[in-house]
Amino acid sequence: PEPGPELVGHYKKILKQNLLKEGETFVFATKMVFDPDMVVAMMTAAGELQATGAHVSVFPKITGNTYESGLTGWHWDLYAGADLLFNTSLGSSPGLPGATTAYGNKVGDHPYRTDFEYLNRTGSKTRWLSFGYDLERQRRYFPTAERRQRTRRGAILLDRTRGELRVTNDAGSDFRMDMTGRPGHAQYGIADFPGRWDNFGYGCAACMPNEDSAEGVLVLQPGDIITSLYPKVLDEPIRLTFEGGYVTSIEGGKKAAQFQNLLASYGSPES
What we know:
By secondary structure, the protein is of the alpha/beta class.
């Protein structure tokens, strides 16, 4: 069945927000199993905007009960040739293009360290949006002009205050990092210029500090998250002491000991 005008209009609004226009190429990459209503409505909206392109359903390599990524260099060249690329995974997902800085994630034939870097290289024409959530949350987290303004302003402030960043709070944190030469970055859920990647429904301002520059105390509090622990949400504080960019002390209760054991299990000070 054809999608209704309301659903097509919803996705047309998103595509217009990401500046898709007549004559451009749009690629919508999904897993092998996908939401047909979303895909048909999305491609109908792209057609009504007079764009060209394709829905690419990436199927995995299957050996017995083992599923591996089906992404190849052919896929990445296709994505790199698109004016606008949407993928339905937030972050990395087996078999789909994802944002990652892991240097092992490269299957394409290109001189860049990762396939992600290939699409976001200087001179790239591809605007890339990681697109997710069900319809209700798409509407709830819909990108706004206010979010774009606030996050871009945050990135500009990070640029203007290059040097030392200091974080303090009532829990006892007093944490310093050097940001010299590292630019501020904003995400606001829209891929609106060539070479840009973003997350739909997201908003943040960020900066990567210089390695080995962290000094001081960072106190993680109940409600904070450490993704490698289970459960991820902390129910007690953890006090981390940094010297020269390395954690030299982990203090607290049961969760602190669990975190200490996790880091020690890698057998490397870099962990």
